[in-house]
Amino acid sequence: MQVRLLGSMEVTIQGRPVRLGGRRQRAVLALLLLHANRRISRDRLIEDLWDGRPPPEAIQTLQSYVSRLRRLPGLEVQISARQGGYVITMPTAALDVERFRDLTERGHRALRSAQYDEASRVLREALCLWRGEPLVDLDDIAVIRDATRRWNELHLTALSDRIEADIERGSAKTVIGELEALVGHHPYQEQFLALHMRALYLAGRQIEALAAYRHARETLVGRYGIEPSEQLRTLERAILAQDPALLPAAPNADHEDPGALVEVSDRTPPPPRRPTQSLGSVRHTTRHNHSACRDHARRGRSRFPHPDHTGERQLADHRPRSSRRRPPLGHRPRPTSPCVVRTPAPDPGALPLATAPIRSVMRLEKGCTRLLDTRTAYLRAGPENQLPLLANAPTAAYRPEWS
Tens of pLDDT along 330-378? Predict the structure, then answer.
């Protein structure tokens, strides 16, 4: 037999419910169950049953209710009269309220002993007995209403202990939604607000944890003119300081250290490494090597390292021969610094006719005719073969007189 009071009152025998009669008769059974295995006087039963206003025939009516309860089929309880009162005798384990109270105490002791897995398991088992508001159909009786208020407080305590055990196990993320609902239904239960703030902090949501505290503080100060408790104020300071004492006792993969998250996010990435440069790519770099510029200007080295021009016979002997045509004697091109970016000019012959620059056909030494850019031809021709070009003359042909 199972007697359930944590919800609407039910009595089941081998899983089948028992019909308990009318509302007043069920109220008599509930009052007897509140004092299970203890004597309750007849006068107190009458006082509680009729809320201080009993009818003239209250004693006879009470005796008839007790007599009907004794004759209920399958009811494995004994209701006996004793010293002007009644006693209901039944196993304690058959009453869900007693089992709930026992499991809640065991879970609380396990939590205080840092046995978080055991505490979570026992408290979950206790909370499974809760089916809703206790004795909701009999809440007009003051004694029953006071008893259900105590059971509700015990239920909230069991919820708080179970959530705390889950947080200490490292499951902070899994309880955030449940805590949000509890804070909404019980806005003045500060233990749920404290657990909510800590769970948000451990989930890496520090800003939301502080916002929850400030919202609760504005509500308390605005409506009642009081500050939050010292526990909440201490918790806020610990979150701001990222106190390691807030970390769970047994973290797992579900937990994220907020301090580690902030440290990683504030760390600036290292600068990109400069690629190694070969000697051939030095003149294509964008970084200025001032010392190289000064040395080059001091030496005045030519772009065409001819030994007759620079005197560096040994350097010229070791350099590979270039297929590029050497300039005529006497021509000295402008020096080039390795710090200047040089982009090779496009071949004028490869440009289309619509976009090609002004061209001129010149007959150079040995009668070789080439199509060159006007400016390039002017610079590369020798002093004796240079033709003064007019700005408005698109082309010109020159045939030197050979001796």
Answer: 555 555 544 444 445 555 444 444 444 444 434 444 444 444 455 555 5
Number of H helices and E strands in the chain, helices first, is 15, 9
- Specify which residues 363 forms β-bridges with: 369
The percent of residues above 70 in pLDDT, for the chain, comes to 62
**Around Cβ 67, how many Cβ atoms within 10 Å?**
10
> Using an 8 Å Cβ cutoff, are 165 and 116 in contact?
yes
DSSP secondary structure letters along 336-377: --TTS---PPPPGGGS-TTT---EEEEE-GGG-EEEEEHHHH
Burial 41-66 (b: 16+ CB within 10 A, else e): ebeebbbbbbeeebeeebeebbeebb
Determine the Cα–Cα distance for residues 307 and 325; give it in Å rounded to an integer: 15
Query: Which residue blocks in 71-175 are alpha helix, DSSP H?
Result: 96-112, 116-127, 142-168
From the CA atom positions of the chain, what is the Rg in Å? Answer: 49
Rounded Cα distance, 311 and 288, in Å: 27
153-180 residues labelled b (16+ CB within 10 A) or e (exposed): ebbeebbbbbbbbbbbbbbbbebbebbe
The domains found in the chain, sorted by start residue, are 2-91 (1.10.10.10), 172-265 (1.25.40.10)
Rounded CA-CA distance 207/114 in Å is: 29
| Of residues 397, 368, 379, the one with CA closest to residue 333 | 379
For residue 226 the two structure tokens come to 């009081």
The order of strands in the sheet holding 85-89 is 40-41, 85-89, 78-82
Give which of 184, 181, 179 is closest to 197, Cα–Cα: 179
DSSP letters spanning 144-172: HHHHHHHHHHHHHHHHHHHHHHHHHTT--
Task: State whether residue 139 is helix, strand or coil.
Answer: coil
Q: How confident is the model at residue 326 (pLDDT cuts 50, 70, 90)?
A: low
Q: How confident is the model at residue 78 (pLDDT cuts 50, 70, 90)?
A: confident
47, two tokens: 């006082």
**Contact call for residues 395 and 359 (beta carbons, < 8 A):** yes
